[in-house]
């Protein structure tokens, strides 16, 4: 194969644009990092905000290594070192992202300074599922698409990934239920505040559900109608959806004195 500049490439026609595309997204996350980092110098900063800063940094680095992996595959036909680095970073990023979403949903650092036992168990479940998920990814890279083993591990990958996504929704549901009970008290200033927090957590729940549905189901179905030259669009739409998700979560949880989430710690 040859790229748009006439250079020989070991990538398929549908993968030609991936190195540049991932590099652009890495730069986008890199630009998002200082924007978010500057907001964490404000007085209303909590531990979860620092974890969110690390999450953005990990995402930017992971996407950069993915760009490097495809770049060297394009040139040499293989990239064992870059692939190993990418898969390692992808595992760390995946665990960290799901954990941060879980912590936000449980209200840790914003509502309470600790996690209860059942929330800790959910984190361990997510960790185990992410390990299985990355084993499946590693095996898929060594197999040829269309073979039986590839199809089996591909099914495992999608199933485990959806389980991870469902697991992070559990603490959000618990928190929403807790706020619903608190909002049932007679009308008062505290009840009004609780009702506002309830609406915020419901918004976060819907945002996470929309992100999961879009990146795990809509993109998967969209990929089935793509031609072999447009397979890169699957990665593009996934990364675009993820970038939008990060941005919206950042807006919802930005450190500011009048943020309804942050009022929880002052009650």
TrEMBL record:
GOST seven transmembrane domain segment(s): 23-260
Chief place of localization: membrane
Membrane topology: Multi-pass membrane protein
Entry annotated with the keyword Acetylation: no
InterPro entries in the cross-refs: GOST_TM, GPR107/GPR108-like
Keywords: Membrane, Signal, Transmembrane, Transmembrane helix
Pfam families: GOST_TM (PF06814)
Transmembrane segments: 20-37, 44-65, 85-110, 122-141, 153-174, 204-226, 232-253
Subcellular location: Membrane
GO CC terms in record: Golgi apparatus; membrane
Domain of life, source organism: Eukaryota
Protein name according to UniProt: GOST seven transmembrane domain-containing protein
Native species: Thalassiosira pseudonana (Marine diatom)
